[in-house]
Write a structure and sequence with these properties.
alpha/beta; 360 residues; TIM Barrel
Length: 360
């Protein structure tokens, strides 16, 4: 298989172990021809919630401060990503990125890069009410707020914190600041989740937010994820269709993880009330279109959420590597990306790191 248009001499077929060296320039590509233009940057592993599907009630052993990238190191890697590797979209994640005091400075520095990337943020929204406007001013384009339920008791049980009012205030502030479209990310609880999904969609339609429901993935710190307990896309859609009419969104999905549906009422109205997305990461994996590369808070490149190996850019930085060496290491890491995450393979092994340490 050749890819002359991409400037790559050979590409690997799924199941093949043959691999040529990574290209030294051009797009950030892997051996299956996927071009990676979307960078997910985890700014911290710290979080002020304790969601049951992410970490234990007592929290985790946090990364020591000296193991995390400092502001200058992060700025350098972001510059290499945008100007040398062709990254066009940067999403800041955590842990919880709003616990990082200098977040606005990081966003502003990213917005100053040329060509300017799209800049987005995924947050739990707890501290968003007072920072939405400053983040918009700094250059943030869009925001995703994690919210699994609008039921206060369910929220407290899932997050182990009574902070629903703060999250709702953060959503209102994000909309007022012009961080549109404001998206809501929901991971459904195995017990209450289907009821929560209906109420969430009603809430989002009422307030003009876009709901994305994400299948729960095996990325919990306790490694207790069970496939037969997690709510799948088919059950989500079946439940929503009891209350709404869903039709496929006409806009091509491309590399977006969510399958979008236009929502009308279940009473026969043809008025489109909004859209809802379902991210079927487990039951309908979309790895063949993946365009993401990931940088952890401690400077590791991960070519997949479920990668078993990382590439240590922090060590290269601190040992005096030049930009060429950093770029080459990043390209090599992505060149070796597997065909898929392998969740459905019988020999699948959950990553050692939980989602909070990898970055969403």
């Amino acid at each position: 298989m050749t890819a002359v248009a991409l400037g790559v001499p050979t590409l690997r077929r799924p199941g093949s172990s043959a691999m040529s060296p990574a290209p030294a320039d051009g797009p950030l590509i892997d051996t299956f021809g996927r071009i990676h233009t979307d960078l997910r940057v985890s700014l911290t592993d710290l979080c002020n919630l304790r969601c049951t599907y992410c970490m234990p009630a007592e929290g985790l052993d946090w990364l020591p401060g000296d193991q995390k990238l400092n502001a200058d190191e992060l700025a350098r890697l972001l510059r290499i990503a945008v100007t040398r590797l062709g990254i066009t979209s940067v999403r800041f994640t955590g842990g919880e990125p709003l616990v990082v005091p200098h977040l606005e400075e990081v966003v502003a520095a990213t917005a100053a890069l040329r060509p300017r990337p799209e800049i987005t943020l995924t947050t739990n929204g707890v501290g968003l009410a007072r920072r939405a406007a400053p983040l918009k001013t700094a250059g943030l384009d869009r925001i995703n707020v994690s919210l699994d339920t609008v039921d206060a008791a369910h929220f407290a049980a899932i997050t182990r914190r009574d902070r629903l009012a703060d999250v709702l205030a953060g959503l209102r502030a994000a909309k007022a600041a012009g961080l549109s479209p404001v998206k809501v990310n929901a991971v459904l609880d195995p017990v209450t989740g289907l009821d929560d999904a209906v109420a969430l969609l009603r809430f989002c339609l009422e307030h003009g937010y876009q709901l994305r429901i994400i299948e729960q993935m095996p990325l919990d710190a306790d490694h207790t994820w069970q496939r037969d307990r997690a709510i799948g896309a088919a059950d989500i859609l079946t439940t929503l269709r009891r209350h709404f009419t869903l039709t496929p969104d006409p806009v091509p999905r491309g590399s977006a993880p969510a399958e979008l549906w236009q929502v009308t009422s279940a009473q026969g109205s043809t008025e489109v009330l909004g859209r809802v997305g379902v991210i079927a990461s487990v039951s309908q994996a979309f790895c063949s279109a993946c365009d993401r590369t990931r940088l952890t808070a401690d400077g590791q490149v991960r070519n997949c959420l479920f990668a078993s190996e990382e590439t240590d850019l922090r060590a290269l930085l601190r040992n005096g590597a030049d930009d060429d060496a950093l770029e080459g290491a990043w390209r090599t890491a992505m060149w070796a990306k597997a065909a898929g995450h392998g969740i459905n393979d019988p020999d699948f092994v959950q990553p050692d790191r939980p989602m909070s340490a990898i970055g969403g």
